[in-house]
Amino acid sequence: MQEELRNSLRMEKSYQAALARLPRGVLVKKLIRQRPYFYLLSRERGKVCFKYLGQVSAAQQQRYAAAKQKRAQYRRLLAQVRKQIRFLRKVAHGKSAI
Fold first, then answer.
1. In the sheet that 35-44 helps form, which strands lie side by side, from edge to edge?
2. Is the pTM of the predicted complex or chain greater than 0.85?
3. Residues ≥6 apart with Cβ < 8 Å to 13
4. Where are the chain's structural domains?
5. Per-residue confidence (pLDDT) for residue 16, from 0 to 100
């Protein structure tokens, strides 16, 4: 049981590290007067910030799209691992699982 808990804690750290390595924010395309403008949407100190990027290559657009998918995947996995950690800690302390 303790080994499973240690493994889950290690997985949690690795998922958090993977999330930190991903580029921050998402790429937003706005059409202004029929012309595309790209912005980087992110949060800074709890506020939503748009940073103008100008022309963005197709490769960079794909990179941000892939990062968005990876971020969602890692957050989902992180939520599952945290749920598992809570369960294992309850079991380790003798509390009922239900």
1. 26-32, 35-44, 47-54
2. no
3. none
4. 2-92
5. 95
